[in-house]
Design a protein that fits this description.
It comes from Sporosarcina jeotgali. This protein has five helices and four strands. It has 130 residues and is an alpha+beta fold. The chain has a four-stranded mixed sheet with strand order 2-1-3-4, sandwiched between helices.
Length: 130
């Protein structure tokens, strides 16, 4: 089964993060769904993701990961040297997550929120969105 990344579809930073992953995932390990979509909402419910999650969510091997745990597990599968970021998994989760939470709290202020227009994926990218 593919790994599924759930993301905030209204967040410019989250959209940029999805584009970043796509460009560095030549083996297409990841599929994507917006948290606001029916699929995203159903997956969130199925995997017990809290309604107030303010994070990327990675669903992998029957488990949902959030915050820095999700980000580091995603990085582990990316091309280039990004997989080395997984080494930060040795940092205690409360410390990693406090940094993640700081960025998450400020993402709309720093990167904005989507209005109407969104990127149009290529046909190859479109098949990765569920």
């Amino acid at each position: 089964m593919k790994r599924i990344v759930l993301f905030d579809g209204e967040c410019n930073f989250c959209d940029a993060s999805v584009q970043f992953i796509i460009k560095r995932d030549p083996y297409e390990y990841f599929q994507f769904a917006s948290l606001q979509s029916e699929t995203g909402a159903q997956l969130s419910k199925d995997f017990g993701v809290p309604d107030d999650v303010d994070s990327l969510v990675l669903i992998e091997k029957g488990k949902a990961y959030t915050k820095s745990g999700a980000a580091l597990r995603i990085a582990k599968k990316l091309d280039g040297l990004w997989h080395l970021a997984f080494l930060f998994i040795i940092v205690p989760a409360p410390i990693r997550d406090s940094v993640y939470d700081f960025v998450a709290r400020n993402r709309y202020k720093w990167f904005g929120k989507k209005e109407e227009a969104c990127m149009l994926p290529t046909p190859a990218e479109r098949k990765r969105f569920i």
